[in-house]
Amino acid sequence: MQVECLLQVQLPWNVGVIAEQAKRLEQDALDTARRIAAEEARRAALERARIKSATDTATRKSTDRIRNEETELIIGNAISIMENTAFKKYEQAEKARKRAEEKARRRALEEDEEGESQSGREEEEDEEDDDEDD
């Protein structure tokens, strides 16, 4: 009878204790799972932030490199075009100068020839005048 009494008193108490322990263990497991999930979420957020930062940095460097390369190419092309244009303008100016010099030289020759022919005519006229005077 004592055993029955003890079992009647002890059994419900043991079941209650065991149930509380099971509840506590389950709660601890849930808390641990929450902490693990929160830690994994934090790590994932940090990894995403790191990847985003690395991507932004790589994108910025790539963009800067492309801009520099394009700028060098554009400036190089512009310089080449300006050099070609300046050379063509120089050639045109040189041709115009040579034409002007040639034209001036021809004019000078024509004026010299006209001057000589006039002076030749004057000499002839002078000779004729001299002949008439004699």
General description of the model:
Residues 110-134 have a biased composition (Acidic residues). Residues 94-109 have a biased composition (Basic and acidic residues). The protein is mostly helical. The protein has one helix at 2-133. The longest helix is centred in the middle third of the chain and has 132 residues, at 2-133. The model has no long low-confidence stretch (mean pLDDT 86).
Write a brief caption for the model.
This protein has one helix at 2-133.
Layout of helices and strands, plus pairs?
Elements lengths: L1 H132 L1
The computed structural class is mainly alpha
Number of DSSP-assigned strands = 0
Strand count, sense and barrel status of the largest sheet are: none
Low-confidence stretches at least 5 residues in length (pLDDT < 50)?
Answer: none
Q: Topology as H/E string?
A: H
Strand content: under 5%
- Overall geometry: rod-shaped
| Average predicted local confidence, pLDDT | 86
Give me the Rg, rounded. Answer: 57 Å
Helix content range of the residues, please? Answer: over 70%
Counting DSSP H or I runs of 4 or more residues, the number of helices is 1
Separation of the first and last Cα atoms: 194 Å
